[in-house]
């Protein structure tokens, strides 16, 4: 099974439609079965889609005509591949978008889950975060997949990541008895001790696919200053794919990093090929 995670930076990229097609063509060419997307935006004022059957909103906010995941699924269909999607909102993005996270799968989801942290906050507050989960049956076994987008370790002198991670761990199907894959933008660099990456391993028994992989093609997922990392000037690994079981990871590959493929976002994609 091949899976992919990407923070899309959607509608903040130039040539967005061309980049959507580039992403869709890579999904088809590599036969990627599960895609986790973050920063999946739609304009607040865009028309509501009332007849979609291939993607479902798991919140009170409906899917709109420019929803990045909705458009990607439609492009995949145009190119001859059927996929199913789920989306949930997190907060307002750049004052004009309804920002959320999405999961896309070749197989229909048999179960779904939304885990929201700081749900009491106004929708305009970036501290409000939602994570989305979807389960499929694969070789007659139920597997949970999560697309996650966490806050930074600290934001405006407030520690955010710890409470978000512990909330996710409390409600998500991510114990050592589960068969789950958690992927997305964690906004915490793997090389920094005693912050988010260390906290994950302190409070859980998850396996980092980068370290489990037999073959690696690249490592880092950002390499310069980007939105949310304005002071960064080096390569960082802040996007991850974790598993609850010690699965056989055949390859770990960085996609869309401007080397083999053109960039399509301010983050690079992470793809793994694993045996489930």
Could you explain the architecture of this structure?
With about 280 residues, the chain is of the alpha+beta class. Strand 7 and strand 8 form a beta hairpin. The protein has helices at about 15-30, 70-80, 160-170, 195-205, 210, and strands spanning about 1-5, 35-45, 55, 85-95, 95-105, 110-115, 130-140, 140-150, 155, 160, 180-185, 205-210, 215, 240-245, 250-255, 270-275. It has a single domain (about 1-275), classed as Endonuclease/exonuclease/phosphatase (Deoxyribonuclease I, Chain A, 4-Layer Sandwich), CATH 3.60.10. The chain is built from five helices and 16 strands. The radius of gyration is 17 Å and the shape is globular. An eight-stranded mixed sheet has the order 3-4-5-2-1-16-15-13. It has a six-stranded mixed sheet with strand order 6-7-8-11-14-12. Strands 9-10 form a two-stranded antiparallel ribbon. It starts with a strand and ends with a strand.
Structure keywords:
about 280 residues; alpha+beta; Deoxyribonuclease I, Chain A; 8-stranded mixed sheet; 5 helices
Describe the secondary structure blueprint for this structure.
Elements: E1 2-7, H1 16-29, E2 34-43, E3 55-57, H2 68-78, E4 84-93, E5 97-105, E6 111-117, E7 129-138, E8 141-149, E9 154-155, E10 158-159, H3 161-171, E11 180-185, H4 196-203, E12 207-208, H5 209-212, E13 213-217, E14 239-243, E15 248-255, E16 269-275
């Amino acid at each position: 099974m091949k899976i992919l995670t990407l923070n899309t930076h959607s509608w903040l990229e130039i040539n967005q439609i061309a980049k959507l097609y580039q992403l869709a063509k890579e999904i088809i060419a590599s036969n990627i079965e599960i895609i986790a997307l973050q920063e999946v935006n739609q304009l607040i004022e865009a028309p509501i889609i009332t007849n979609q059957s291939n993607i479902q909103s798991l919140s009170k906010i409906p899917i709109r005509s420019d929803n990045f995941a909705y458009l990607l699924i439609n492009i995949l269909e145009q190119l001859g591949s059927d996929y199913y999607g789920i989306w949930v909102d997190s907060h307002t993005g750049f004052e004009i978008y309804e920002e959320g996270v999405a999961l896309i799968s070749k197989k229909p989801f048999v179960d779904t889950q939304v885990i929201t942290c700081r749900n009491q906050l106004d929708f305009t507050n970036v501290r409000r975060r939602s994570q989305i989960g979807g389960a499929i049956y694969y070789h007659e076994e139920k597997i949970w997949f999560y697309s996650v987008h966490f806050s930074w370790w600290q934001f405006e002198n407030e520690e955010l990541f710890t409470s978000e991670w512990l909330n996710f761990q409390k409600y998500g199907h991510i114990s050592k008895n589960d068969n789950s894959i958690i992927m997305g933008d964690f906004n915490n660099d793997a090389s920094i001790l005693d912050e988010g990456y260390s906290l994950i391993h302190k409070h859980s028994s998850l396996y980092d696919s980068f370290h489990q992989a037999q073959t690696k093609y690249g490592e880092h997922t950002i390499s310069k200053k980007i939105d949310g990392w304005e002071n960064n000037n080096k390569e960082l690994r802040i996007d991850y794919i974790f598993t609850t079981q010690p699965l056989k990871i055949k390859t770990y590959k960085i996609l869309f990093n401007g080397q083999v493929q053109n960039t399509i976002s301010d983050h690079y994609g992470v793809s793994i090929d694993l045996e489930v």
